[in-house]
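Inverse folding, one chain.
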């Protein structure tokens, strides 16, 4: 799975939005529903689609997703985190993948 595929998927019908401009490819997290780290603040949202599940977390609570995990129906999974380049652009780096 390519990063572009994942971002295109969550930018479509889902309430996640991919921002344009200097922060292109940074992903805003709207209406989180899960407190993943147990600090009492909702920081994560789970998105289901026909092909699997995407888990988006904003663990530093700045409104932007800082960890994305994708679980596909075939048991494959991958996780990404945004990295800010020297020129200010953001790219997503795969930090984990495998097969369940
Ligand atoms: Ca964040």
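Residues assigned per position:
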């Amino acid at each position: 799975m390519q990063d572009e595929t994942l971002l295109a998927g969550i930018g479509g019908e889902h309430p996640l939005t991919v921002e344009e401009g200097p922060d292109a490819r940074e992903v805003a997290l709207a209406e989180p529903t899960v407190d993943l780290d147990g600090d009492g603040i909702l920081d994560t949202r789970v998105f289901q689609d026909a092909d699997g599940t995407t888990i988006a977390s904003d663990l530093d609570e700045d409104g932007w997703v800082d960890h994305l995990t994708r679980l596909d129906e075939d048991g494959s999974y991958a996780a990404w985190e945004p990295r800010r380049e020297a020129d200010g652009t953001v790219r997503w780096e795969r930090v984990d993948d495998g097969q369940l």
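The first strand starts at residue 17 and ends at 18. Residues 1-15, 17-23 have pLDDT under 50 and may be disordered.
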